[in-house]
């Protein structure tokens, strides 16, 4: 597919010329995502690496508009083909409105190129007034407010909140209650903050230092070491605490997994699908916290436990080792999966964590493009692999020890159903109750919904080998 042809557009001001240039670039990237089905963040990163002419403001306009288009694509695609010139400018204009972007001069140019009627221009002006008042009163616009705008702008099209995710999502993730559907959509249509963890440093000390560095940092009410770093982009290489290994980026939902594992300072754990090691580092940090809580204030925390991390990707394990070294964490070793055989000894671990490959529907909030470049098969074709990994990994669990299964999927097909199938074939394991950190409910299956604590989505279950 080719970028839209803007030959019919007459740009007369510098702002209009820049708006046209942005439009062409965004269109090229948007089509590339849909054509190649590669993640948008990877395509954007490659583009900026090849086109260093763009300044920080250019990058922000391009990147945030691109992701905004995917965030609202369930509505925007109903306007027609993005390859029609006026339709494309309608999409850009609506995206700027729905996202409330603050580059108004470019949004105005896209609006003027869109062919909107006088009535549609007035509808937009009225919406902008309401949006301004809403911001002034610190009341964020809801998805329903935005839905109302779209239905007013395009009276011949019916827009619904549920359209902001593909139809097949509701089949693999059935939510009968419409109120709960809207709550999930509300979260999916906004960006969560950057979540992080404090390591080897007091959380409040970390918050103070981060704030002094100009970062909108605050402590979480849910976990003692969890940090919110706000919604603004951060260059981590400029953050001293990150370079010293005292702050690690990890979404709050992901942090639920380690806290469900509850590793003790003297235990031996295996992280079977560690990737670059986010949860391995969290497990180690929690072990240190457990060691400290068991000693008097005059004693030094002693860690006698260890963690083995495995993955099929050697590059991911190399990155893990770099992160562990940066944090000065000892007792972490790697054992790559090289075949179907266990890369570790059987019956030898106090805890085994299986963070299985999945559809990643729980991360759609951060990666809205995934909603539209994936299809239902991304959920349906994973459960066999997930059950296989869980079954193999369970052989490393000692009697009386724990097996933890987790995914960043919201679908029971990849979560409860996999665990139930595993238990049917492994009667020597029992599900145990865990505390949902955001609701305090005692549950055997914990699903973290993005709307519960402003995070991604995640699933976790803990089992005990009898």
From TrEMBL:
Residues 182-466 form the SAM-dependent MTase RsmB/NOP-type domain. InterPro entries: MeTrfase_RsmB-F_NOP2_cat, MeTrfase_RsmB-F_NOP2_dom, RCMT, SAM-dependent_MTases_sf. S-adenosyl-L-methionine binds at residues 311, 355. It comes from the Bacteria. CDD domains: AdoMet_MTases. Keywords: Methyltransferase, RNA-binding, S-adenosyl-L-methionine, Transferase. One of its GO terms (biological process) is methylation. One of its GO terms (molecular function) is methyltransferase activity. The active site is at residue 408. The keyword Transferase applies. Belongs to the class I-like SAM-binding methyltransferase superfamily. RsmB/NOP family. This is RsmB/NOP family class I SAM-dependent RNA methyltransferase.
């Amino acid at each position: 597919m080719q970028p839209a042809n803007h030959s019919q557009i007459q740009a007369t001001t510098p702002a209009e010329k820049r708006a046209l240039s942005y439009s062409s670039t965004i269109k090229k990237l948007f089509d590339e995502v849909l054509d190649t089905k590669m993640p948008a963040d990877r395509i954007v990163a490659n583009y900026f690496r090849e086109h260093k002419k763009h300044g920080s403001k250019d990058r922000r306009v391009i990147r945030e508009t691109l992701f905004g288009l995917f965030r609202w694509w369930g509505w925007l695609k109903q306007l027609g083909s993005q390859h029609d010139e006026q339709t494309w400018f309608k999409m850009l204009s609506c995206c700027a409105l729905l996202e409330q972007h603050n580059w108004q001069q470019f949004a105005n140019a896209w609006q003027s190129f869109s062919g909107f009627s006088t009535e549609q221009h007035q509808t937009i002006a009225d919406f902008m007034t309401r949006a301004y008042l809403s911001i002034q009163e610190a009341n964020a616009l809801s998805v329903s407010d935005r839905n109302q705008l779209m239905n007013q702008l395009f009276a011949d099209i019916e827009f619904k909140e549920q359209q902001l995710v593909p139809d097949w999502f509701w089949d693999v993730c059935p939510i009968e209650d419409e109120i709960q559907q809207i709550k999930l959509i509300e979260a999916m249509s906004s960006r969560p903050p950057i979540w992080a963890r404090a390591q080897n440093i007091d959380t409040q000390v970390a918050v103070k230092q981060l704030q002094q560095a100009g970062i909108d940092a605050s402590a979480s009410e849910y976990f003692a070491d969890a940090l919110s770093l706000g919604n603004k982009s951060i260059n981590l290489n400029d953050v001293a605490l990150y370079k010293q290994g005292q702050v690690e980026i990890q979404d709050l939902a992901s942090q639920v997994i380690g806290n469900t594992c509850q590793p003790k300072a003297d235990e031996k754990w295996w992280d079977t699908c560690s990737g670059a090691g986010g949860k391995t580092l969290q497990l180690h940090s929690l072990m240190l916290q457990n060691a400290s809580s068991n000693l008097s204030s005059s004693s030094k925390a002693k860690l006698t436990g260890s963690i083995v991390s495995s993955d099929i990707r050697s590059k991911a394990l190399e990155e893990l080792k770099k992160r562990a070294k940066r944090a000065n964490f000892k007792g972490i070793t790697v054992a790559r999966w090289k075949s179907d055989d266990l890369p570790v000894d059987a019956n030898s671990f106090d805890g085994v964590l299986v963070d299985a490959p999945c559809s990643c529907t729980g991360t759609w909030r951060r990666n809205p493009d995934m909603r539209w470049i994936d299809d239902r098969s991304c959920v349906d074709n994973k459960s066999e692999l997930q059950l296989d990994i869980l079954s193999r990994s369970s052989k490393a669990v000692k009697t009386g020890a724990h097996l933890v299964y987790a995914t960043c999927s919201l679908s029971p097909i990849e979560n409860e159903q996999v665990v139930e199938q595993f238990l049917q074939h492994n009667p020597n394991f029992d599900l145990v109750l865990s505390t949902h950190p955001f609701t305090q409910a005692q549950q055997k299956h914990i699903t973290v919904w993005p709307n519960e604590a402003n995070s991604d989505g995640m699933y976790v279950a803990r089992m005990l080998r009898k």
